[in-house]
Structures are given as structure tokens and as C-alpha cells.
């Protein structure tokens, strides 16, 4: 028993995590194919103790496959629609199809039923969006939300494996007095913050900022939601953090918000100022939950909350969410159905 699964982009930061999480969650796999670009083909990767050789992705790679995970990048543009046509359900971690009205954009704790509307492709939201929308949904269901202001503190691994290498190299160079040559990032990332993630677009917002706006509205099915974002790269290896200000439609006290959040699936509240208890990226990495703390009423408006949210963006922000979507497809029996 199990499903025929292909991972495209298996050797990258998210692909590796997908494989690890499938193993951890004992995801039912009857056949596994690991693919990537020609450059990464030939590498060996382990799944449940067995070695698999990464192959170059070609149209034939999708023959007979039931679930096709795309870890990110351009590959899903080239092969996603074809994989779906050949009968697989595509779960795509890139931004290529996220805003397509025919493609559900799913966070299992928030809009699980949307997977049932798929026409062959399901999109996995952007990492910063996933991490924000889960706690937002908890509040949204109880009090409604009028406006959200979010600022992010995003780890270098959000930019892939090269981002990790660059933080190490820049830190070493800064300490040893060596030369710092930014390549993945626009400026030296060690001992710095860079308020620029992805490309600049309309109104001088970055694409990462627009993703947080547009994807959140789509996932919550609320085009009227007012939301604005500032996204910042920080010298942290792993786990994105977010400061989120939420203006609610009805009043929620801080105590009530703590309870609502603690009761919501996938959320862990870490909030005890007296004990210096609040989420931090160093301690959330490697975990699947979204950690929320510093839960306070906004002193400047009638109905508002401030929360501080941290989660491992390679896991819940990417790979875990994708595997959870596949689990929903099995649960709702909507694999192979169009
Ligand atoms: C980042 N959100 O952290 C992006 C990855 N999709 O760069």
C-alpha cells in the first residue's frame, strides 16, 4: 500500500526536508522518485535506510506518479501542468501558481477543504505567509480581522542552501577582517539586517511583501482584509520570526487571545514575561509547530492585538505543510480525481 511519489528539486534545502518529514510522519510511499536539475543528478539520498539516486527531471519522470511534490523554483512551470495531465496531483512550493484562481492555496489548519477543489495542481503558500496565517485564522474565527500590519525577521535558509553558506562566510570574514562578497544577498548579511527580500514591485513593496498580502487574502477567502507587510532578512540560520499587529472587529482581551491561540491546531503559546518565556528562532528550528508569544492588547487602538510569531520556515513554512496537504488528499480520497 502507499502512493507513487516524485519529489522535483529533491536535493535542495526544501526537497531534503520533504524527504526527512515523509520518513518521520511515515507517509505511505509505494514508489519513490527523486529528481532535480542535471547539475544535481547522480547524488544519492536516503529514505528509510534505502539509497535513491537523484535523476534529471524529464517528462518521463512523471509516468505513473500519483503525487508530485515540487520543492520550488522554475521546475513547476516547465513540468507542473504536464505532471497533472499525466495523472499526478502536483503540490507546488513555488510561487508560480499560487494566485491562479484554478489552483487552491492551502494551509491544512486554515482551509483544508480547499484541496477538494483541485484540478491537478495545489499550491503551498510562501513560508512567511503560512507562519502568519495560522495564528491569524485562530483570531479571525473568533473576532474577525479588519487590518493586519506585519514585519518579518527572515532566516537566511529561506533563500536556500546558498543563504546558509553566505551567512557563515560573511560572519567569518567580518570577524577575521577578510573580504565580504555578497552574492545571494544584496549586502553583507553578518551583523546586518536587509529590508529587501525578492524583487521590488508596485508601490516600492517587494514581491515577498505582496505575497504576504495577496496569499493571506486568498487563504482566508477575504479580499477585504487590509494587510501591509515589511519583510527583512536577518542573520539567523533558520526559523522566521514575525511581529504581527492585528486590528480585530470585536474586542479580544490578551487573556482570551492566549486561550484562542493555545487551543488552535499547530500553535504553541510560549508567553510568560515574568519567566522570560517567548519564542525565539534558535529554539523553534527543527519543529513543526508555530510558536506565539508576547501576546498583548494594542495600547493605541480599541480592538487590537500584538503578537510575536516564530516557526521553522523550512518545515511548517514549506515541507511539512506540503506533506500535510498530501495527507489531506489521501484523507479526502481526492488523489487522481479531476
Ligand atoms: C525567503 N520567503 O525567506 C522566502 C522563501 N520563499 O526568502
From TrEMBL:
Superkingdom: Bacteria
Summary of the function given for this chain in its UniProt record: Catalyzes the NADPH-dependent formation of L-aspartate-semialdehyde (L-ASA) by the reductive dephosphorylation of L-aspartyl-4-phosphate.
Subunit text: Homodimer.
Entry EC no(s): 1.2.1.11
Pfam families reported in the protein's UniProt record: Semialdhyde_dh, Semialdhyde_dhC
Gene Ontology BP annotations: 'de novo' L-methionine biosynthetic process; diaminopimelate biosynthetic process; isoleucine biosynthetic process; lysine biosynthetic process via diaminopimelate; threonine biosynthetic process
Sites where the protein binds phosphate: 98
InterPro entries referenced in this protein's UniProt entry, alphabetically: Asp_semialdehyde_DH, Asp_semialdehyde_DH_beta, NAD(P)-bd_dom_sf, Semialdehyde_DH_NAD-bd, Semialdhyde_DH_dimer_dom
Chain residues that bind substrate: 154, 233
Family per record: Belongs to the aspartate-semialdehyde dehydrogenase family.
UniProt-recorded Gene Ontology molecular function terms: aspartate-semialdehyde dehydrogenase activity; NAD binding; NADP binding; protein dimerization activity
Recorded metabolic or biological pathway in which this protein acts: Amino-acid biosynthesis; L-threonine biosynthesis; L-threonine from L-aspartate: step 2/5; Amino-acid biosynthesis; L-methionine biosynthesis via de novo pathway; L-homoserine from L-aspartate: step 2/3; Amino-acid biosynthesis; L-lysine biosynthesis via DAP pathway; (S)-tetrahydrodipicolinate from L-aspartate: step 2/4
UniProt cross-references to NCBIfam families, sorted A to Z: asd_B, PRK14874.1
Domain called Semialdehyde dehydrogenase NAD-binding: residue spans: 4-118
Record bears the keyword NADP: yes
Active-site residues, record numbering mapped to chain: 127, 240
Organism listed in the record: Sporotomaculum syntrophicum
CDD domains xref list: ASADH_C_bac_euk_like, VcASADH2_like_N
Assigned keywords, A-Z: Amino-acid biosynthesis, Diaminopimelate biosynthesis, Lysine biosynthesis, Methionine biosynthesis, NADP, Oxidoreductase, Threonine biosynthesis
Name of the protein described by the UniProt record: Aspartate-semialdehyde dehydrogenase
Enzymatic reactions: L-aspartate 4-semialdehyde + phosphate + NADP(+) = 4-phospho-L-aspartate + NADPH + H(+)
Amino acid at each position: 500500500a502507499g502512493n507513487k511519489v516524485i519529489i522535483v528539486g529533491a536535493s535542495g534545502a526544501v526537497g531534503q526536508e520533504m524527504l526527512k518529514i515523509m520518513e518521520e510522519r511515515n507517509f505511505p510511499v509505494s514508489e519513490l522518485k527523486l529528481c532535480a536539475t542535471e547539475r544535481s543528478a547522480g547524488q544519492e539520498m536516503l529514505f528509510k535506510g534505502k539509497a535513491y539516486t537523484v535523476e534529471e527531471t524529464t517528462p518521463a519522470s512523471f509516468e505513473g506518479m500519483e503525487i508530485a511534490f515540487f520543492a520550488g523554483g522554475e521546475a513547476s512551470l516547465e513540468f507542473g501542468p504536464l505532471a497533472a495531465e499525466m495523472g499526478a496531483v502536483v503540490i507546488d512550493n513555488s510561487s508560480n501558481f499560487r494566485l491562479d484562481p484554478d489552483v487552491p492555496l492551502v494551509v491544512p489548519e486554515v482551509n483544508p477543504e480547499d484541496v477538494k477543489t483541485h484540478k491537478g495542481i495545489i499550491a503551498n503558500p510562501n513560508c512567511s505567509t503560512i507562519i502568519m496565517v495560522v495564528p491569524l485564522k485562530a483570531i479571525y474565527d473568533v473576532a474577525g480581522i479588519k487590518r493586519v500590519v506585519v514585519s518579518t525577521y527572515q532566516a537566511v535558509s529561506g533563500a536556500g542552501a546558498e543563504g546558509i553558506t553566505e551567512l557563515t562566510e560573511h560572519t567569518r570574514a567580518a570577524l577575521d577582517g577578510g573580504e565580504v562578497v555578497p552574492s545571494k544577498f544584496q549586502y553583507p548579511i553578518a551583523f546586518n539586517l536587509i529590508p529587501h527580500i525578492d524583487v521590488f514591485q508596485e508601490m516600492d513593496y517587494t514581491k515577498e511583501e505582496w505575497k504576504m498580502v495577496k496569499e493571506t487574502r486568498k487563504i482566508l477567502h477575504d479580499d477585504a482584509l487590509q494587510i501591509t507587510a515589511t519583510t527583512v532578512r536577518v542573520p539567523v540560520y533558520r526559523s522566521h520570526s514575525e511581529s504581527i499587529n492585528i486590528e480585530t472587529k470585536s474586542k479580544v482581551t490578551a487573556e482570551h487571545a492566549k486561550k484562542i491561540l493555545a487551543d488552535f491546531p499547530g500553535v504553541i503559546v510560549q508567553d510568560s514575561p515574568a519567566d522570560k518565556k517567548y519564542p525565539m528562532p534558535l529554539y523553534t528550528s527543527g519543529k513543526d509547530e508555530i510558536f506565539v508569544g508576547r501576546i498583548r492588547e494594542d495600547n493605541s487602538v480599541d480592538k487590537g492585538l500584538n503578537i510575536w510569531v516564530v516557526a521553522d520556515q523550512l518545515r511548517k513554512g514549506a515541507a511539512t505543510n506540503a506533506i500535510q496537504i498530501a495527507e489531506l488528499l489521501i484523507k479526502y480520497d481526492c488523489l487522481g480525481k479531476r
